[in-house]
Specification:
The complex is a heterodimer. Chain A has helices spanning about 45-55, 80-90, 100, 110-120, 125-135, 145, 155-170, 185-205, 215-220, 240-245, 250-255, 295-300, and strands at about 5-15, 20-30, 35-40, 60-70, 75, 90-95, 175-180, 205-210, 225-230, 230-235, 305, 315. Chain A is an alpha/beta fold. Chain A has two domains: about 5-220, Rossmann fold (3-Layer(aba) Sandwich), CATH 3.40.50; about 250-325, no CATH class. The longest helix of chain A has 18 residues, at about 185-205. The longest helix of chain B is centred in the C-terminal third of the chain and has 38 residues, at about 215-250. Chain B folds into two domains: about 5-75, no CATH class; about 95-305, MetI-like (MetI-like fold). Chain B has helices spanning about 5-30, 35-40, 45-55, 60-75, 85-120, 125-140, 145-160, 170-200, 205-210, 215-250, 260-270, 270-300, 300-305. In chain B, helix 5 (about 85-120) packs parallel to helix 12, helix 6 (about 125-140) packs across helix 8 (about 170-200) and helix 10 (about 215-250) packs parallel to helix 11. Classes of the chains: A alpha/beta, B mainly alpha. The interface of A and B includes residues 118, 163 and 166 of A.
Chain lengths: ~325, ~300
């Protein structure tokens, strides 16, 4: 299977006043063309930093500490401006809060045209015309008139549509969507998810879809990676993951979801909380909250292992005591 | 442009002017009998009564106010007692010279302050940032009269390359403009820097970076238009300080502008002139603030347009 983006053992480092911290550790992920990879986890588990590493937008004091990222078969080099250009042409990104991500003093049309112009190198005039088409494509009504609107004049849903128009201008191969619907109403969320699915079919782009909402991921993702405290703990095709979670954390997440058909309300929260960045346990980060944890878990983190289950490929888990015994370490 | 916004600001400007003109009237009345201030000490009581009647000081206070206000609106601030010319004419002769100095200062300060502030923000903590901030602190901690004298000592007395004072050629302008512009440019640079630092850390700048917008594009097309509002605000505020500075600087360099006229008129107790200049300065300030308010609307669509459907 050809891959669009391939992340190998990525670690991200933040230089804090009290010494460096590693909010992303040994993360390996890949997205194929036309595929949607869902990346789920609690707030602060490193999802966003993983995205920003992919598009090359780590800020001050944040850097890639180890691992490789390759995009369309070629390794990326964060320090090379030419590479920065290659990535910005091939990738689009949308963020959680469209209001703060759109420039308040520029019209929606101006911003979409600029994105198109930079990615394609077309003239301003062509880009202007294309901007209106893009706003139409993402389902903004009366795109010609809305192109002259400023971000504060349209609703949050329309703002996110405009962000998507900017992200897909010039048809990038990869769309990174970092919690794109978290700030929106539930009804708008459904529309945006449907829009992304339609655009994916039309443009054929791969999507890295980050969310903390498991229900949403079930709807949109082909494969799902579950992150906990900076590591990917389980990676599996969406249907398999929901049918048979293999990592205790994944199962905990699923058990904490409400189901409409339940006769009795029985939400099972995961007890405890995520260990802070500066006090990561030496072993598995989930061990303090895990009912299956043993001394071994507390001593050393489990390595990621491919599933040995017959008939199931592309499934991996990092746990000493997996739920499914066929993947348990010998 | 949102008409209601403009009208509101215009009404506020007119209201402020009315307050200032009225304030001048009140100050003039409570500082004592104008005839004592405007007439020589040795005139008789008969003459004073004559002028009291002539100036309407024997009428009720509200009638005096209306007469004064009517005259002020028509630009009549009385006559200079030094040479009996209308005060407004005397002031008006000086205005172009002060305007010349003011505009040159304004242009210099903007041309220095804005790029320095932007560069300091973009390359934060670099040598250019430290140099700019040192210049800014120097600029507004150095009193105008002192900087002016230092410049005269250096360029006129020691190096002998610039005239020490007076008006006439561009060489005469160099030192007064530099003296006035240093403080102004320092303030602009500092505010531009902090406004740019704030804007450059916003999410929409990250969006532009993700699209692949170059640094120059991000700074000038994305960040600067957003930082312009606080910068324009400080320019408006600094104008008052600049007028004060102009009075001092014109005196240091013997520049024949409104500032020098003001100091000599105060020394001579030529109240008609002082009154006229106070109102003129007030008009300048109010107009500047009105223009700043209009600039907000022009720069920020959120002020200009407001949310849809409201």
């Amino acid at each position: 299977m050809s891959t669009l983006i391939d992340i190998r053992e990525l670690s991200v480092r933040i230089d804090l006043p009290g010494g460096p911290a590693y909010p992303v550790r040994d993360v390996s992920l890949s997205v194929a063309p036309g595929e949607t990879l869902g990346l789920v986890g609690e707030s602060g588990c490193g999802k966003t930093l993983t995205c920003l590493s992919v598009v090359g937008l780590l800020g001050r004091r944040v850097s890639i500490d180890g691992g490789d990222i390759s995009f369309q078969g070629a390794p990326v080099d964060p320090n090379d401006p030419e590479d920065r250009r290659r990535r910005s042409r091939g990738m689009g990104i949308i963020f959680q809060n469209p209001m703060s991500c759109l420039n308040p003093v520029r019209t929606l049309g101006w911003q979409a045209a600029e994105a198109y112009q930079i990615r394609t190198g077309e003239s301003r005039r062509i880009a202007r015309a294309r901007a209106v088409e893009l706003l139409d494509l993402v389902g903004i009504p009366e795109p010609r008139r809305r192109a002259a609107d400023y971000p504060h004049q349209v609703s949050g849903g329309q703002q996110q549509r405009a962000m998507i128009a900017m992200a897909i201008a010039g048809s990038p191969a990869l769309l990174v969507a970092d919690e794109p619907t978290t700030a929106l109403d539930v009804t708008v969320e459904a529309q945006i998810v449907e829009l992304l699915a339609r655009l994916q079919r039309e443009i054929g782009m791969g999507i890295l879809f980050v969310t903390h909402d498991l229900g949403l991921v079930a709807e949109i993702a082909d494969r799902v990676a579950v992150m906990y405290a900076g590591r990917v703990v389980e990676l599996a095709p969406a249907a398999d993951l929901f049918a048979r979670p293999n990592h205790p954390y994944t199962r905990g997440l699923l058990d904490s979801l409400p189901y409409l058909d339940d006769e009795v309300e029985r939400l099972t929260p995961i007890e405890g909380k995520v260990p802070p960045l500066h006090a990561m346990p030496p072993g598995c980060a989930f061990a303090p909250r895990c009912d299956r944890a043993s001394d071994r878990c507390r001593a050393q983190p489990a390595l990621t292992r491919q599933s040995r289950e017959p008939g199931i490929r592309d499934r991996s888990v990092a746990c000493h005591h997996t739920i499914d015994k066929t993947t348990e370490a010998a | 442009m949102n008409l209601r916004y403009v009208v509101t600001k215009l009404l506020r400007a007119i209201f402020t002017l009315w307050l200032v003109v009225s304030f001048v009237f009140i100050v003039l009345r409570i500082t004592g009998d104008p005839t004592e201030q405007l007439l020589p000490d040795d005139v008789g009581e008969q003459t004073r009564d004559y002028y009291r009647t002539l100036w309407g000081l024997d009428r009720p206070i509200w009638e005096q106010y209306l007469l004064y206000f009517k005259a002020a609106v028509q630009g009549d601030f009385g006559v200079s007692f030094r040479n009996s010319e209308p005060a407004l004419d005397l002031i008006w002769q000086r205005v172009p010279k002060t305007l010349e100095l003011g505009l040159a200062t304004f242009a210099t300060a903007l041309a220095l302050g804005v790029p320095l502030g932007v560069m300091a923000a973009v390359w934060r903590d670099s040598w250019i940032d430290r140099l700019t901030m040192s210049f800014a602190v120097f600029g507004f901690s150095m009193p105008n009269f002192f900087l002016g004298i230092l410049l005269i000592l250096l360029f006129a007395m020691n190096l002998r390359i610039l005239p020490s004072s007076g008006y006439g050629s561009w060489e005469h302008m160099v030192m007064p403009v530099f003296t006035l512009a240093t403080a102004f440019a320092g303030a602009i640079a500092r505010f531009t820097r902090s406004a740019m630092l704030d804007v450059l850390s916003r999410d929409y700048i990250r969006t532009a970076e993700a699209e692949g917008a170059s640094l120059r594009r991000r700074v000038w097309l994305h960040a600067f238009p957003n930082a312009a509002v606080p910068v324009v605000t400080i320019i408006g505020f600094s104008l008052g300080g600049m007028i004060g500075g102009a009075v001092v600087t014109e005196n240091v360099f013997a520049w024949p502008g409104v500032g020098r006229l003001l100091t000599s008129s105060v020394a001579d107790r030529d109240l008609a002139i002082v009154q006229g200049i106070v109102v003129l300065v007030a008009i300048t300030m109010v107009t500047a603030n009105f223009l700043v308010d209009l600039a907000y609307g022009w720069l920020d669509p959120r002020i200009r347009l407001g949310p849809r459907g409201q």
